[in-house]
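Hi support team,

I've been running sequence recovery on a batch of backbones for a student project. Most finish fine, but this one hangs at about 90% for roughly twenty minutes before it completes. I'm not sure whether the input is malformed or the queue is just slow. I've pasted the structure tokens below so you can try to reproduce it. Let me know if you need the job ID as well.

Thanks,
M.K.
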């Protein structure tokens, strides 16, 4: 375990020209990240290729034991990692934010280590005996975003390693320090070459998606990024898992209790200040309880402090970067000029330091308004009125993405019936965005393909092989 300053100094000392990373809450420098070139990428891939047979030969039990030790290492450095994450990403230490994310890294490593995966006997009828095994793929590229940089890296790394692959990680250029620090800590317990990071721009990173030595790309990011990776990986027929974000709908049925659901709806939408792939981004509320839901949600939202993440009082932070800040501000402006009613927030304060956009709730907004139809990925929630369930389901299904969704009701059986009609990879009932390392998670439509987590997620990091005879 190192002190925070020693951890940052060791990252700044890595080879490669330094690039200063700034805190999105203050504009102050956080540290220096290396800028890796293609040579470094080639060395990392070569190291991963060399280390892979030995890592695979260890077998599931030894690899799981290493993942458990890596989880211990994360816990030993938890406070230093959380502080760095808060300074670089902006999310507060407190609330379901930086400490929570570091805790999730340890939890996912442990859960992934303990998932059962035995060969399956598919046919055994006296004449044919066919068994299904899962072999390592080889070297996996893990390409991640800036919203949950550590947790999503672990979502990609842990199952890949457990299955006997080695991994080269390419973090987002917005949050390289968090991932470099995380990998440094994980490597306290992993053999050399098994896990490395290339801290580079997207042009250099793109090489991973066409590199002949990479067998699979795990990608979490934008739909445009996913499309580019499908194309660049085609020549080498790479396996892909694509988690491409979405624009999740929540449907509040007429029998829901507005007061009882308001807090959970708030966190479903505003987790990580709205910068969450499976956050609730469009809320459909039945006409009969529309005003009550708006009122309760406004009361909850008003009480949630936003500010510098190192201040323990805060549970909401800034947008991570200027581009995302502009997306949110422009979408809210467009909603306002269309005549939608702002219940809370809605006025960007460009004079304050940092990319803070106020918690914003917008009511009486049309379904085709850009704030509804486009993924805002920030702290602004449109609330749309509906009068029949058919109408709500049609609107929820009306986009070409479908990662998560939720149904809110006092009658779980009724909610399940509505859930079955929604086109998304997950539908939660009376909560939103609650991911779990035991439960498969993935997208429908252009939210991507393949699943992460659970035994299904492990299998996705292996090559199925049938032994027949
Ligand atoms: O994502 P990108 P960005 C959404 C969100 C946000 C938008 C853009 O709406 O506004 O995406 O964010 C790497 N080959 N999400 O620009 O561009 C890139 O360097 C290789 C949803 O950050 O997809 C970075 O490491 N790598 C999302 C990562 O992919 C490539 C989380 C994501 O970058 C690449 C974040 C290529 N061709 C943003 N193109 C979610 N699903 O949670 C991009 N990258």
């Amino acid at each position: 375990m190192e002190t925070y300053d020693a951890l940052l100094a060791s990252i700044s000392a890595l080879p490669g020209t330094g690039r200063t990373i700034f805190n999105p809450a203050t504009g102050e420098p956080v540290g220096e990240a290396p800028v890796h070139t293609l040579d470094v990428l080639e060395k990392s891939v070569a190291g991963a290729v060399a280390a892979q047979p030995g890592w695979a030969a260890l077998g599931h039990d030894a690899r799981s034991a290493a993942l458990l030790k890596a989880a211990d290492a994360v816990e030993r450095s938890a406070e230093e990692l959380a502080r760095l994450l808060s300074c670089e990403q902006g999310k507060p230490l407190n609330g379901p934010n930086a400490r929570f994310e570091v805790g999730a890294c340890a939890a996912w490593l442990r859960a992934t280590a303990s998932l059962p995966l035995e060969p399956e006997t598919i046919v055994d009828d006296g004449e044919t005996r066919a068994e299904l095994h899962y072999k390592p793929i080889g070297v996996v590229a893990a390409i991640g975003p800036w919203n949950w940089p550590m947790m999503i890296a672990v979502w990609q790394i842990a199952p890949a390693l457990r299955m006997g692959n080695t991994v080269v990680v390419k973090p987002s250029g917005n949050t390289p320090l968090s991932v470099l620090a995380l990998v440094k800590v994980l490597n306290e317990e992993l053999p050399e070459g098994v896990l490395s990071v290339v801290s580079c721009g997207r042009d250099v990173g793109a090489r991973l998606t066409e590199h002949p030595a990479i067998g699979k790309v795990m990608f979490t990011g934008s739909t445009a990024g996913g499309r580019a990776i499908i194309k660049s990986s085609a020549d080498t027929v790479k396996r892909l898992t694509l988690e491409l974000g979405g624009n999740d709908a929540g449907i509040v049925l007429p029998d829901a209790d507005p007061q009882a659901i308001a807090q959970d709806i708030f966190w479903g939408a505003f987790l990580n200040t709205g910068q969450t792939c499976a956050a609730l981004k469009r809320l459909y509320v039945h006409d009969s309880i529309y005003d009550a839901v708006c009122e309760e949600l406004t009361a909850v939202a008003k009480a949630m402090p936003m500010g510098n993440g190192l201040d323990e009082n805060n549970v909401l932070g800034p947008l991570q970067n200027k581009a995302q800040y502009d997306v949110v501000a422009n979408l809210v402006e467009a909603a306002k000029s269309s005549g939608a009613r702002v219940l809370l927030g809605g006025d960007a304060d460009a004079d304050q330091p940092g990319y803070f956009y106020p918690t914003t709730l917008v009511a009486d907004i049309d379904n085709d308004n850009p704030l509804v139809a486009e993924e805002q990925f920030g702290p602004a929630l449109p609330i749309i009125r509906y009068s029949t369930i058919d109408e709500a389901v049609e609107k929820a299904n009306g986009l070409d993405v479908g990662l998560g969704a939720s149904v809110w009701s006092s009658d779980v059986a009724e909610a399940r019936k509505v859930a079955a009609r929604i086109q998304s990879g997950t539908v939660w009932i009376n909560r939103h965005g609650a991911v779990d390392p035991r439960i498969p998670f993935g997208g429908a439509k252009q939210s991507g393909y393949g699943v992460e987590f659970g035994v299904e997620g492990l299998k996705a990091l292996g090559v199925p092989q049938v032994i027949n005879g």
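--
Follow-up from support: It reproduced on our side and the slowdown came from queue contention, not your input. The longest strand covers residues 129-136. No action needed from you.
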